[in-house]
């Protein structure tokens, strides 16, 4: 008997059921249902093909910067189900659970004075009580955090909205420490020209540190662009805003709010120009302020 797979779920290989909790290192754990539909014979021959549908529960773990999620079959009875060989086994899930402590997060849109919004271009984004709905595909997709009337922006992969014309629902979970948040881009499933598409979810975990990059007009624009890119790619700091500095400085200084000294010291190590760290001694809504020096090598 010949089996043809018609559709499988996407990144997390499961529709989102619930968020279980967070580890202290910023990994979010969630439960979902893996749905599939396969045919015996040729799926294009209605007389010779016979559809077989099924689903089973998964538990998935998604860490900052990770793609795709690591998913495990939750029940031993499903370990030999269709497609289960692509996931971790129940015993592996039990071992992972024993080795990690998880705590519940928050699904609020405003946490610790930070208000989340999802913005797109070329396609509508409708806020709902629990999240947002994105209709169609967007050429640009951003998440913004606002605090004290100021806004920090993280640019996301616009492919997260590719849902074959169906709506994509976005929900959020904040880690208990508020240091991370997970955005869940859910495709509720439907039909595509090639057949049924099951529910799926694309999670993204972001560091919520609010970073302001300041540079005097005398600083080469390429230095500012490079520093911003390094903060994203090497430090995982996506929520940024740019501000002009009133005066030039020879060397780069990273100012940090309470609780962010270790992160500031890590940032200095990855910046091409290096620098020093100092505590924030004035009122600011930023968690880190990266004040760039005039010399790229300073």
Report on the structure:
With 298 residues, the protein is mostly beta strands. It folds into three domains: 3-99, no CATH class; 110-207, no CATH class; 211-291, 2-Layer Sandwich (Alpha-Beta Plaits), CATH 3.30.70. It has three helices and 21 strands. It has helices spanning 90-99, 221-233, 261-270, and strands at residues 3-7, 15-22, 28-40, 50-62, 70-73, 110-111, 114-121, 125-127, 131-135, 140-147, 150-156, 167-174, 180-187, 190-192, 195-197, 200-207, 211-215, 240-244, 253-256, 276-279, 288-291. The strands form five sheets. Strands 1, 2, 3, 4 and 5 form a five-stranded antiparallel beta sheet that branches. A five-stranded antiparallel beta sheet has the order 8-9-12-13-16, with no helix packed on it. Strands 18-17-21-19-20 form a five-stranded mixed beta sheet, covered by helices on one side. The chain is elongated. The chain starts with a strand and ends in a 7-residue tail after the last strand. Residues 1-11 have low confidence and may be disordered.
Structure at a glance:
The protein has 298 residues and is mainly β.
Which properties best describe this structure?
mainly beta, 21 strands, single chain, 5-stranded antiparallel sheet, 3 helices, Alpha-Beta Plaits, 298 residues
Number of separate structural domains: 3
Q: H/E element string? A: EEEEEHEEEEEEEEEEEEHEEHEE
Compute the number of helices: 3
Radius of gyration: 22 Å
> Which overall shape is indicated by the principal axes computed on the Cα atoms?
elongated
Strand tally is 21
Q: Characterize the main sheet.
A: 5 strands, antiparallel
The end-to-end distance, rounded to whole angstroms, is 68 Å
| Overall residue-averaged pLDDT value | 86
- Estimated share of beta-strand residues: 35-45%
Low-confidence stretches: 1-11
Which secondary-structure class do the elements indicate?
A: mainly beta
Question: Percent of residues in helical segments?
Answer: 10-25%
């Amino acid at each position: 008997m010949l089996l043809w797979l018609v559709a499988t779920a996407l990144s997390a290989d499961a529709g989102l059921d619930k968020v279980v909790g967070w580890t202290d290192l910023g990994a979010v754990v969630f439960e979902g249902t893996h749905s599939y539909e396969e045919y015996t014979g040729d799926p294009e021959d209605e007389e010779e093909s016979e559809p077989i549908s099924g689903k089973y529960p998964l538990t998935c773990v998604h860490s900052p910067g990770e793609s795709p999620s690591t998913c495990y079959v939750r029940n031993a009875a499903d370990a030999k189900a269709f497609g289960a060989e692509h996931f971790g086994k129940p015993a592996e899930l039990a071992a992972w659970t024993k080795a990690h402590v998880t705590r519940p997060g928050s699904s609020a849109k405003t946490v610790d004075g930070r208000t989340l919004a999802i913005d797109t271009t070329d396609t509508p984004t409708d806020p709902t009580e629990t999240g947002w709905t994105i209709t169609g595909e967007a050429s640009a997709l951003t998440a913004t955090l606002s605090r004290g009337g100021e806004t920090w922006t993280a640019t996301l992969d616009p492919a997260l909205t590719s849902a074959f014309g169906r709506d994509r629902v976005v929900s959020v979970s904040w880690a208990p420490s508020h240091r991370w948040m997970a955005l869940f881009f859910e495709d509720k499933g439907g039909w595509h020209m090639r057949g049924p598409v099951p529910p799926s979810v694309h999670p993204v975990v972001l560091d919520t540190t609010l970073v302001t990059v300041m540079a005097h007009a005398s600083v080469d624009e390429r230095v500012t662009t490079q520093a911003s890119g390094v903060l994203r790619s090497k430090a995982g700091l996506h929520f940024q805003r740019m501000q002009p500095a009133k005066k030039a400085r020879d060397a780069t200084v990273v100012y940090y709010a309470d609780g962010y000294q270790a992160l500031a010291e890590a940032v200095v190590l990855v910046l091409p120009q290096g620098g020093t760290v100092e505590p924030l001694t004035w009122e600011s809504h930023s968690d880190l302020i990266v004040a760039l020096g005039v010399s790229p090598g300073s």
